[in-house]
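Data card: per-record layout.
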Amino acid sequence: MPTTPDNPDVVLIGAGIMSATLGTFLKELEPSLTVAMFETLDDCARESSEGWNNAGTGHAANCELNYTPQRKDGSVDISKALEVNTEFDLSRQLWSYLVKKGAISDPRAFIHPCPHMSFVWSAGNVAFLRERFKEMSAHHCYYGMEYSEDRTRIAEWAPLIMDGRGDQEPFAATRIITGTDVDYGALTHLLVKHLSDQPGFHLHYNREVVGLDREDNGRWRVSVKDTNDGGLVTVSAKFVFIGAGGGSLPLLQKSRIPEGKGYGGFPVSGIWLRCDVDAVSQRHHAKVYGKAASGSPPMSVPHLDTRIIGGKHSLLFGPYAGFSTRFLKRGAITDLFTSLSFDNIIPLLDVARDNIELSEYLIGQVLQSSSHQFATLKQFFPRAVKTDWKEAVAGVRVQTITPHQSKGWPHHEVGDLEFGTELVAAKDKSIVALLGASPGASTAASISIDVLKKCFGNELTEGAWLPRLKAIIPTYGIDLKTDADACRRARAETALVLKINDISAAPDPQRPPAREKDPAHR
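The structure for this 522-residue chain is written out next.
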């Protein structure tokens, strides 16, 4: 690797949306930094960031029902949804900054307006959605959300889910037109291209990081193997970000930092049903989420998604979850077994014992036939035709198993199964690994800012990076969950730049809400 300096300031492991986003922040904040990015595959965004490998909802926690659990008294907790909702605002601000700067010439290359919906049936689920709407629509972050139990109204929003549906049981839906569809594969390519055009950034494909060793001076010796000829080189980095998706856990283990002790991973594979038939996909312009089966992981929430990838409208339904021993879609079948260690075996067994329902769910999914899968689709789209749909393999999600000290006897590390993302950093902040899956890509900007705060606190001052960060993220330091005016302003400004929908007019109960406008869909 002759173009890579022996001593880069920063090494980014993995060329997905996470590394690309953090790299973008770092080079905007400190253009003089030398940054090396290493990717095992032959291009960026080939794993979970790739368009067909993720749900691409532009997660704003508008429609994902797993973010709004129901309490025992029947009320709905929307705190997690609000957290994710405002984290997505940070992504919108970063992307808007890059568009205005000219680093991204056309936002329609990766983002499109697409209404987000939740749809349920049965009396119990309708009661839940009604209560959820009551809580969410009262908050400024969800201004403009609509609710209906009326068949005609829901059919206007999403014809496919109502065609052929009987009236034997009640159903209900919510809708918000400010939702988006995001192609994170396309976005990653745009970010990596922007980085590659800058001095001091060095991109290397077909390079696998095989060793992470701390040097006496506190730097990290990063050993990198050429996957074509097996050649091995090393670089010495001041800071290392492990953003390799499912591959992050094995690399965290290679670092041997005490903070990574006891962490484990539980891989969940996924399968989509995909429809590229224009006559079908052009009749559905929404992302419609339902309720997950009992015991299922969050990324298995069923949804009928509009996807716009490469200018082509398609539909995805799923995902159908399954068990895998691979940590990456293109990983090794032995990934799970080689990740086992004396430190994490007890937390893993602890999680297995406490999540029998999840295990039963995954076994059931694995044993499902294609007929069973199609029957699930028909619950959302009653008149679906099987020949219009083909199977597509989704990306692998590695759920994090976090260790903690047991309170009983004997004292040992026990585990919790986490469905979010987690940053695991060394005490000296010289290396950090990103573990976990959902909401993932949609909150890449928020995660990157967390890395900056965790590992670059000395630089985030008024005399250094802070003014530049506020130029990129104007609402940095403002809680958009409580500051309604700042939230409204930020959304109006980013919607204009990104060419997506905004609802800024005062509510008028006598006037129907604005309809979505997407010239690409017309």
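Known properties of this structure: Residues 405-412, 505-522 have pLDDT under 50 and may be disordered. Residues 79-101 form the longest helix (23 residues).

See the next section for split statistics.
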